[in-house]
Design goal:
- This protein is mostly helical and 253 residues long.
- The longest helix is centred in the middle third of the chain and has 27 residues.
- Helix 1 packs antiparallel against helix 7, helix 4 packs antiparallel against helix 7 and helix 8 packs parallel to helix 10.
- Helix content is 67%, strand content 2%.
């Protein structure tokens, strides 16, 4: 807004800044896991909220940033009315989904899955656990920054309370409901917790009560989530890897 940058350069800079923040947050988080990691991230969020509320020259303080312009592509303004923002968000959703699809199946994805399954075993296999943990923080921070940029352009206004604890609770509910470690599970969780309340607006004032009930029920009866069991399946080997293993087995025999 203050520099007058167009949409795509500002989004890219926002993602890079979020990546740097991911490194800053990731370094002190290396020695903690589980609940303690959640406490650190939530505490960091509250610290950032206080900074944004008091850095009035940049963020506008509690008044926030108003009149955020809509994105323009080739001179055409993308709005809700012409479905431009919808197709822009859909484009980035497909782009991020493709990126995550190939990431999970790459060397980096295998390392991340190994750390998730057994961190000690990953260390014994020579995986640089600290590097991949920080990398995971950086990637997730950059994807979240992309989502936040799209949201700001859609609403046209952001303030320190835009992304509060309630939003974190909603995202956590989506992950737990869909199943951690599964890409399709995130789609299902988002559809159930975001799209469904939109068509059932009479439940909107009770949505966080509903989220809490869902979290309790899922943790009690299906802690892995609806599709979480897929993340526990053996890593699928490529056809080339299977052929190489078969060839080596024959040679050993």
């Amino acid at each position: 807004m203050k520099a007058g940058l167009p949409f795509f350069p500002s989004v890219l800079l926002g993602m890079l800044l979020a990546g740097v923040i991911g490194v800053v947050l990731g370094l002190p988080s290396l020695r903690v896991t589980g609940t303690y990691l959640s406490i650190i991230t939530l505490g960091f969020g509250e610290i950032m909220k206080m900074i944004l509320m008091n850095w009035q020259s940049v963020t506008g303080g509690t008044l926030g940033i108003k009149n955020i312009p809509k994105p323009r592509i080739f001179g055409m303004e993308l709005t809700v009315q012409n479905y431009g923002l919808y197709y822009l968000a859909l484009f980035f959703l497909i782009l991020v989904s493709i990126f995550c699809f190939f990431l999970v199946r790459s060397k980096t994805g295998r390392a991340l899955r190994g750390i998730k399954g057994d961190e000690l075993a990953s260390v014994m296999m020579g995986v640089n656990v600290n590097f991949y943990k920080i990398l995971a923080m950086v990637i997730s921070a950059m994807i979240c920054a992309l989502g936040g940029s799209l949201y700001a352009r859609l609403i046209g206004y952001v303030d320190p309370n835009t992304f509060n604890f309630d939003v974190s609770t909603m995202i956590l509910s989506i992950v737990i409901l869909g199943g951690m470690g599964t890409q399709r599970g995130m789609y299902i969780g988002a559809i159930l917790l975001i799209a469904f309340p939109e068509v059932s607006r009479f439940l909107m004032e009770y949505r966080f009560v509903l989220y809490g009930v869902i979290l309790v029920l899922m943790m009690r009866f299906r802690p892995v989530g609806l599709l979480g069991w897929k993340s526990r399946l053996p890593y699928p080997l490529s056809h080339q890897a299977k052929a190489d293993l078969a060839k080596e087995s024959k040679e050993l025999v």
